[in-house]
Description:
Layout: E1 18-23, E2 26-31, H1 42-56, E3 63-68, H2 79-84, H3 88-107, E4 112-116, E5 119-121, H4 123-130, E6 133-137, E7 141-143, H5 154-163, H6 166-175, E8 179-180, H7 181-187, E9 192-194, H8 199-211, H9 215-229, H10 233-248, H11 251-262
Parallel strand pairs: 2-3, 3-4, 4-6, 5-7, 6-9
Antiparallel strand pairs: 1-2, 7-8
Helix pairs in contact: 1-3, 3-4, 4-5, 5-6, 9-10
Amino acid sequence: xxxxxxxxxxxxxxxxxxxxxxxxxxxxxxxxxxxxxxxxxxxxxxxxxxxxxxxxxxxxxxxxxxxxxxxxxxxxxxxxxxxxxxxxxxxxxxxxxxxxxxxxxxxxxxxxxxxxxxxxxxxxxxxxxxxxxxxxxxxxxxxxxxxxxxxxxxxxxxxxxxxxxxxxxxxxxxxxxxxxxxxxxxxxxxxxxxxxxxxxxxxxxxxxxxxxxxxxxxxxxxxxxxxxxxxxxxxxxxxxxxxxxxxxxxxxxxxxxxxxxxxxxxxxxxx
Length: 271
């Protein structure tokens, strides 16, 4: 009973912390912890990983957009959760799950686009760096600020150092300073910065253009891109040549070339 003697109102059902919408072959996954600036709790990382693994085998989804609800894209790990459960086992499980999430994005057959606004800091910046493409509002700020609280952003460093130049990455990691969207474009962390009012339309246009391609070709290309990055030059060319040969033998490649020569739109079969 309340102080006035009336029964308490029925509790509202909790909002899901991850939202999913699929439209025209594009799946939008929205981090939905706005009050916590979409901090990556253990639960949110687990749900996001599971959702991506489910999407991987969905032939109806060609592109994934990763977004954040509320005033920010993602402020990194949930520090309150971390401090509430200190200990080696907790920390190992947390960073193991984070690494699994980032690897799932990289190994997903569908391209992943980050739709970024507000801030993307620490593991949130890692998330942006891990996505295949990123479009941000021109007011967005980025940082790997762990050094400011005695915790070097070592796991964000893995994605950051593969997305931007070495000295830019080290500057961000050693200072913890915020950078603006313009610098993020210049560093190579994001593809484009646009006025916030144009963010959704820009992301939707990019996703639609990619989704119009052969899903098989997208999957072949994404896997090959990341695999060849870690090879020496000779091995990379040998591997890419084999990939190109296998791609040429695919039905979609035959269809694409025939459609181009006949000056007609291709009809993809995904094989």
